[in-house]
Design brief:
The protein is an alpha/beta fold and 241 residues long. 42% of the residues lie in helices and 11% in strands. The structure holds uracil. Uracil binds next to loops.
Protein backbone atom coordinates (compact mmCIF):
# COMPACT_ATOMS: atom_id res chain seq x y z
CA UNK A 1 0.00 0.00 0.00
CA UNK A 2 1.39 3.37 -1.03
CA UNK A 3 1.75 6.55 1.02
CA UNK A 4 -1.45 8.50 0.32
CA UNK A 5 -3.81 5.59 0.94
CA UNK A 6 -1.98 4.72 4.11
CA UNK A 7 -2.45 8.35 5.18
CA UNK A 8 -6.20 8.25 4.45
CA UNK A 9 -6.54 5.15 6.57
CA UNK A 10 -4.60 6.80 9.31
CA UNK A 11 -7.01 9.76 8.98
CA UNK A 12 -9.92 7.38 9.40
CA UNK A 13 -8.21 5.80 12.37
CA UNK A 14 -8.43 2.29 10.97
CA UNK A 15 -5.85 -0.49 10.76
CA UNK A 16 -4.00 -0.93 7.47
CA UNK A 17 -4.70 -4.13 5.54
CA UNK A 18 -3.30 -5.13 2.15
CA UNK A 19 -5.62 -5.74 -0.79
CA UNK A 20 -5.30 -9.09 -2.57
CA UNK A 21 -4.93 -7.19 -5.87
CA UNK A 22 -2.35 -4.46 -5.22
CA UNK A 23 -2.08 -1.67 -7.79
CA UNK A 24 0.69 -2.05 -10.38
CA UNK A 25 4.03 -0.42 -9.63
CA UNK A 26 5.07 2.55 -11.79
CA UNK A 27 6.05 1.37 -15.27
CA UNK A 28 3.98 -1.83 -15.08
CA UNK A 29 0.68 -2.15 -16.92
CA UNK A 30 -1.88 -0.61 -14.57
CA UNK A 31 -4.07 -3.10 -12.77
CA UNK A 32 -7.80 -2.65 -13.20
CA UNK A 33 -8.41 -0.72 -10.05
CA UNK A 34 -11.95 0.58 -9.57
CA UNK A 35 -10.90 4.16 -10.15
CA UNK A 36 -9.08 3.70 -13.44
CA UNK A 37 -11.70 1.26 -14.73
CA UNK A 38 -14.32 3.95 -14.30
CA UNK A 39 -12.35 6.11 -16.73
CA UNK A 40 -12.45 3.52 -19.51
CA UNK A 41 -14.08 5.12 -22.59
CA UNK A 42 -15.92 1.85 -23.28
CA UNK A 43 -17.86 2.58 -20.09
CA UNK A 44 -19.34 5.76 -21.54
CA UNK A 45 -23.13 5.93 -21.29
CA UNK A 46 -25.12 6.06 -24.56
CA UNK A 47 -26.15 9.53 -25.72
CA UNK A 48 -29.90 9.01 -25.24
CA UNK A 49 -29.24 8.38 -21.57
CA UNK A 50 -28.76 12.17 -21.28
CA UNK A 51 -32.44 12.68 -22.03
CA UNK A 52 -33.44 10.07 -19.48
CA UNK A 53 -31.30 11.73 -16.81
CA UNK A 54 -32.64 15.21 -17.61
CA UNK A 55 -36.24 13.97 -17.54
CA UNK A 56 -35.68 12.24 -14.22
CA UNK A 57 -34.02 15.28 -12.69
CA UNK A 58 -36.94 17.52 -13.80
CA UNK A 59 -39.41 15.05 -12.34
CA UNK A 60 -37.61 15.03 -8.99
CA UNK A 61 -37.36 18.83 -8.93
CA UNK A 62 -41.12 19.12 -9.45
CA UNK A 63 -42.05 16.30 -7.07
CA UNK A 64 -44.87 16.79 -4.57
CA UNK A 65 -45.51 13.12 -3.85
CA UNK A 66 -45.07 13.56 -0.10
CA UNK A 67 -45.24 16.31 2.50
CA UNK A 68 -41.45 16.77 2.56
CA UNK A 69 -41.80 18.81 -0.64
CA UNK A 70 -43.28 21.66 1.40
CA UNK A 71 -40.25 22.00 3.70
CA UNK A 72 -37.39 21.66 1.26
CA UNK A 73 -35.10 24.42 0.05
CA UNK A 74 -34.47 22.25 -3.00
CA UNK A 75 -34.42 18.60 -3.98
CA UNK A 76 -31.15 16.68 -3.66
CA UNK A 77 -31.00 14.54 -6.76
CA UNK A 78 -27.67 12.70 -6.77
CA UNK A 79 -24.15 13.33 -7.98
CA UNK A 80 -21.29 11.61 -9.76
CA UNK A 81 -20.49 9.50 -12.78
CA UNK A 82 -23.57 8.33 -14.60
CA UNK A 83 -21.67 5.21 -15.67
CA UNK A 84 -20.00 4.60 -12.32
CA UNK A 85 -19.04 1.06 -11.40
CA UNK A 86 -19.90 1.86 -7.77
CA UNK A 87 -23.08 3.47 -6.48
CA UNK A 88 -23.34 4.70 -2.90
CA UNK A 89 -26.80 5.01 -1.36
CA UNK A 90 -27.42 7.07 1.76
CA UNK A 91 -30.49 7.99 3.70
CA UNK A 92 -31.74 11.52 3.09
CA UNK A 93 -30.40 15.05 2.74
CA UNK A 94 -29.43 16.90 5.90
CA UNK A 95 -29.37 20.66 6.42
CA UNK A 96 -26.23 21.28 4.38
CA UNK A 97 -27.37 19.02 1.54
CA UNK A 98 -30.74 20.81 1.46
CA UNK A 99 -28.86 24.11 1.20
CA UNK A 100 -26.39 23.02 -1.48
CA UNK A 101 -28.56 20.57 -3.44
CA UNK A 102 -25.93 17.82 -3.33
CA UNK A 103 -25.76 14.63 -1.24
CA UNK A 104 -23.13 14.13 1.46
CA UNK A 105 -21.57 17.58 1.56
CA UNK A 106 -21.55 18.01 5.35
CA UNK A 107 -19.15 16.43 7.88
CA UNK A 108 -20.47 12.92 7.13
CA UNK A 109 -19.78 13.62 3.48
CA UNK A 110 -16.17 14.49 4.24
CA UNK A 111 -15.74 11.15 5.95
CA UNK A 112 -17.51 9.35 3.08
CA UNK A 113 -15.06 10.99 0.67
CA UNK A 114 -12.12 9.77 2.77
CA UNK A 115 -13.59 6.25 2.90
CA UNK A 116 -13.91 6.24 -0.89
CA UNK A 117 -10.39 7.56 -1.35
CA UNK A 118 -9.11 4.79 0.90
CA UNK A 119 -10.38 2.21 -1.62
CA UNK A 120 -9.10 4.09 -4.66
CA UNK A 121 -12.11 6.18 -5.68
CA UNK A 122 -12.34 9.93 -5.98
CA UNK A 123 -15.79 11.22 -5.05
CA UNK A 124 -16.39 11.97 -8.72
CA UNK A 125 -15.67 8.36 -9.74
CA UNK A 126 -18.80 7.00 -8.06
CA UNK A 127 -22.49 7.87 -8.14
CA UNK A 128 -23.99 9.02 -4.83
CA UNK A 129 -27.72 9.20 -4.13
CA UNK A 130 -30.09 8.97 -1.20
CA UNK A 131 -33.27 7.01 -0.56
CA UNK A 132 -35.07 10.35 -0.08
CA UNK A 133 -34.54 13.39 -2.30
CA UNK A 134 -35.93 15.90 0.24
CA UNK A 135 -34.76 16.72 3.74
CA UNK A 136 -36.89 15.38 6.60
CA UNK A 137 -37.50 18.10 9.22
CA UNK A 138 -34.95 18.22 12.06
CA UNK A 139 -33.10 15.33 10.36
CA UNK A 140 -35.63 12.82 11.66
CA UNK A 141 -35.66 9.34 10.15
CA UNK A 142 -37.51 9.01 6.86
CA UNK A 143 -41.03 7.64 7.27
CA UNK A 144 -41.97 4.49 5.35
CA UNK A 145 -44.55 6.37 3.27
CA UNK A 146 -41.89 8.92 2.28
CA UNK A 147 -39.50 6.19 1.15
CA UNK A 148 -42.30 4.55 -0.83
CA UNK A 149 -43.22 7.87 -2.48
CA UNK A 150 -39.58 8.51 -3.42
CA UNK A 151 -38.56 4.98 -4.35
CA UNK A 152 -39.21 5.21 -8.08
CA UNK A 153 -36.54 7.90 -8.37
CA UNK A 154 -33.81 5.84 -6.75
CA UNK A 155 -34.89 2.76 -8.73
CA UNK A 156 -34.52 4.73 -11.93
CA UNK A 157 -31.12 6.11 -10.92
CA UNK A 158 -29.90 2.58 -10.25
CA UNK A 159 -31.29 1.44 -13.62
CA UNK A 160 -29.55 4.27 -15.43
CA UNK A 161 -26.18 3.94 -13.68
CA UNK A 162 -26.22 0.13 -13.80
CA UNK A 163 -23.46 -0.08 -11.20
CA UNK A 164 -21.36 -3.20 -10.83
CA UNK A 165 -21.67 -2.93 -7.06
CA UNK A 166 -23.56 -0.87 -4.49
CA UNK A 167 -22.67 0.37 -1.04
CA UNK A 168 -25.55 1.04 1.34
CA UNK A 169 -24.44 3.37 4.11
CA UNK A 170 -26.49 3.20 7.28
CA UNK A 171 -29.59 1.49 8.53
CA UNK A 172 -32.21 3.37 6.57
CA UNK A 173 -30.55 2.76 3.22
CA UNK A 174 -29.68 -0.87 3.94
CA UNK A 175 -33.11 -1.75 5.29
CA UNK A 176 -34.87 -0.02 2.43
CA UNK A 177 -32.78 -1.58 -0.34
CA UNK A 178 -32.88 -5.04 1.19
CA UNK A 179 -36.47 -4.75 2.46
CA UNK A 180 -35.59 -6.02 5.89
CA UNK A 181 -35.69 -4.75 9.45
CA UNK A 182 -32.43 -6.39 10.51
CA UNK A 183 -29.89 -4.00 12.09
CA UNK A 184 -26.80 -2.86 10.18
CA UNK A 185 -24.59 -4.92 12.48
CA UNK A 186 -26.26 -8.06 11.12
CA UNK A 187 -26.42 -6.92 7.52
CA UNK A 188 -22.79 -5.92 7.13
CA UNK A 189 -20.01 -8.42 6.53
CA UNK A 190 -21.67 -10.30 3.67
CA UNK A 191 -22.42 -9.56 0.03
CA UNK A 192 -26.14 -9.15 -0.66
CA UNK A 193 -27.80 -9.03 -4.07
CA UNK A 194 -30.00 -6.15 -5.11
CA UNK A 195 -32.87 -6.19 -7.60
CA UNK A 196 -33.55 -8.32 -10.64
CA UNK A 197 -30.02 -7.94 -11.92
CA UNK A 198 -28.65 -9.18 -8.63
CA UNK A 199 -26.25 -6.27 -8.20
CA UNK A 200 -23.78 -7.11 -5.41
CA UNK A 201 -24.54 -4.87 -2.44
CA UNK A 202 -22.42 -4.28 0.65
CA UNK A 203 -23.79 -2.66 3.79
CA UNK A 204 -21.72 -0.55 6.12
CA UNK A 205 -22.21 1.96 8.89
CA UNK A 206 -23.32 5.47 8.07
CA UNK A 207 -20.41 7.94 8.15
CA UNK A 208 -22.34 10.10 10.63
CA UNK A 209 -22.45 7.08 12.96
CA UNK A 210 -18.73 6.50 12.39
CA UNK A 211 -18.03 10.09 13.40
CA UNK A 212 -19.84 9.43 16.67
CA UNK A 213 -18.47 5.91 17.11
CA UNK A 214 -14.87 5.78 15.82
CA UNK A 215 -14.46 2.24 17.17
CA UNK A 216 -16.77 1.03 14.38
CA UNK A 217 -14.38 2.28 11.68
CA UNK A 218 -12.39 -0.95 11.71
CA UNK A 219 -15.50 -2.93 10.78
CA UNK A 220 -16.39 -0.40 8.15
CA UNK A 221 -12.93 -0.80 6.66
CA UNK A 222 -13.53 -4.56 6.43
CA UNK A 223 -16.76 -3.81 4.53
CA UNK A 224 -14.92 -1.50 2.14
CA UNK A 225 -12.26 -4.13 1.49
CA UNK A 226 -15.00 -6.64 0.66
CA UNK A 227 -16.59 -4.10 -1.65
CA UNK A 228 -13.40 -3.36 -3.55
CA UNK A 229 -12.78 -7.06 -4.05
CA UNK A 230 -16.11 -7.20 -5.90
CA UNK A 231 -15.00 -4.48 -8.27
CA UNK A 232 -11.42 -5.40 -9.06
CA UNK A 233 -11.61 -8.61 -11.10
CA UNK A 234 -13.03 -9.05 -14.59
CA UNK A 235 -13.94 -5.46 -15.33
CA UNK A 236 -15.70 -5.42 -18.67
CA UNK A 237 -17.17 -2.79 -20.92
CA UNK A 238 -20.56 -1.37 -20.18
CA UNK A 239 -21.95 -3.34 -23.13
CA UNK A 240 -21.27 -6.53 -21.15
CA UNK A 241 -23.15 -5.43 -18.07
N1 LIG B 1 -26.64 11.62 5.26
C1 LIG B 1 -27.18 10.93 4.22
O1 LIG B 1 -27.59 9.77 4.39
N2 LIG B 1 -27.24 11.52 3.05
C2 LIG B 1 -26.78 12.75 2.83
O2 LIG B 1 -26.86 13.21 1.69
C3 LIG B 1 -26.21 13.43 3.90
C4 LIG B 1 -26.14 12.86 5.12
Amino acid sequence: MRGPRRRYLAELGIPVWSLRHPPAAAGEKAAETPANVADTPANAAPVDADDAWSALRREVEACTRCALARGRTQTVFGVGRRDASLMVVGEAPGAEEDRQGEPFVGPAGQLLNAMLRAIGFARGDVYIANVLKCRPPHNRDPRPEEAVACSAYLDRQIELVRPRAMLAVGRISAQWLLQTDRPVGRLRGVVHRYGERGIPLVVTYHPAYLLRTPAAKAKSWQDLCMLVELLVPNETSRADR
